Every structure is written in C-alpha cells, then in structure tokens.
Amino acid sequence: MNIQDQKHLNLQSDKSTGSLSNQDDDVTFIKESSVKNLLNWTDCVDAMESALVAISNTSQNSETEPFSSQTPRTFTFAGNKGVLLTMPGYASNYTLNSVTGSDKKHSTLSCKLVTSFSGNSQLNPAIPGILGTILLFNSDTGKLKAIVDGTEITAWRTAAVSVVATKYLYCDLSLKNLDGNMTGKELAIVGCGTQGRIHALAMLNYFPNVFIKVKLWNRSLNRAEKLKKELNALFPEIIIVIADSSILCVAGAD
C-alpha cells in the first residue's frame, strides 16, 4: 500500500477499512480483516519486484532511479518476557505498474514494529506470540498517515518475494533455456504452517494453469491435512497429496 496515494488507502471509508477517520488530515487504521480484503497477488508481487529493484541500487538519493534507505533493525528487550523490533525503511522513485502504470513514481516512508512474546500462547484466550504493526508516513512531510496491522502483510510479503524469484529464476529460464513448457508442473511445500500455506496460495494464484500437482509435508500430520483440505476446496482441478517425508515431498518437484 502506497502512502502517496491516500485515496487508495482510504478507498473503502470507515466500514471496510476500520479507519479511525477517512479525512486526509487524520490517521487511518486498517485492521487485519480489511488488510486481507485489500491485498491481491498481482499488486503484492508487483510491489515486491519494485522494492527489490530499489534495494539493488546502492545510491541512497537519486533524482530518477528507484532507491531505498534501510537501517538495521533494533531490538528492545522487555525483560525476559519478550522483545520489540523496529524496522524503518524508505523507498523512492518506484513504480506500481499494476496499480498506477509505469509513468507514476511513488515514495514510501514506513516503520514496521514487531513484538515477540512467547508467553502469549499460555494466555486465555491465547494470542499470537508474534505481532506486527506498520506505520505509514507522508514521505514529503513525515506526518503519520496510517497504522496497518502487519501480520497478514508480512506473510504475503514473504511469499511475494518467492514468487518474484520463481518468476525470473525458474519460469524465465524454463521458457528460454529448458523445456519451454510452463504447464504440468509439480509444486512441493515443505512445512504447512503460516509460510507454507501462504506460499502455496501465492504460487497457485499467481501462476494459474501451471501446476497440476502439489505435494505437502509437515512434521505434524494434522497441519498438512488442514492445508490439503483448504487447497482442495480452492483448487479442485489440482492434485493435492501429503508426502511421507520431506525427501519424498521434494523428489520430482519442479
């Protein structure tokens, strides 16, 4: 989500985004359920591809080329209970082709906050041990513009980077130098937790009609069975199987 295009950030007003206010001068809050409704794989992959281009530029100030500035994350320990991580970053002169075309340049100033408290699982009711929040600022004034639940975005972000890598390091090479065929492929997912699940969804959604089979493996069978059930419902045309070991899961996979 791009802080420069505040209309896009506020496109649903209070009811769908959970915003505190839809006025431009106020801070918008986007809760997790609304984040899920706003995200799509085309835009996420496009955004991560642009981010990788910006990061690859060693300059931290360019008038025309994409660039970024990102300092090392900081760790603030809350005694022995948990830790707060801060992850600030700035990206400029990047494009979002799927959203605004190739001509409009964007800039984003943000800071991701992550807390990790292992005791959260023992609470009643339990809450996730790792929680994320993203602060978005106006990149021209530094004014806080939005607070976004970061848990779902983090999962999508990680999978979107994998899609970009697959797009260029596998798909392009396969089409140009290998078999020239991007159908009938087999996907292996080792680990069926949050990242395994979101990677399966990312690959199957972004590369439609490419995979005919998905093999899953997880240390505990019930988590693999849960993901298998979900994928069967979403992609009934694809064969979903659970492998007996991680070695068998990746054997023969593309």
From TrEMBL:
PANTHER family: KETIMINE REDUCTASE MU-CRYSTALLIN (PTHR13812). One of its GO terms (molecular function) is hormone binding. Gene3D superfamilies: NAD(P)-binding Rossmann-like Domain (3.40.50.720), ornithine cyclodeaminase, domain 1 (3.30.1780.10). It comes from the Eukaryota. It comes from Chironomus riparius. One of its GO terms (cellular component) is cytoplasm. Pfam families: OCD_Mu_crystall. Residues 1-23 are annotated as: Disordered. Belongs to the ornithine cyclodeaminase/mu-crystallin family. Residues 9-22 have a biased composition (Polar residues). It is an enzyme of class 1 (oxidoreductase). Its EC number is 1.5.1.1, 1.5.1.25. This is Ketimine reductase mu-crystallin. Homodimer. Binds the thyroid hormone triiodothyronine (T3); T3 binding inhibits enzymatic activity. It catalyses: (S)-cystathionine ketimine + NADPH + 2 H(+) = (3R,5S)-2,3,5,6,7-pentahydro-1,4-thiazepine-3,5-dicarboxylate + NADP(+); L-proline + NAD(+) = 1-pyrroline-2-carboxylate + NADH + H(+); L-pipecolate + NADP(+) = Delta(1)-piperideine-2-carboxylate + NADPH + H(+); (3R)-1,4-thiomorpholine-3-carboxylate + NADP(+) = 3,4-dehydrothiomorpholine-3-carboxylate + NADPH + 2 H(+).
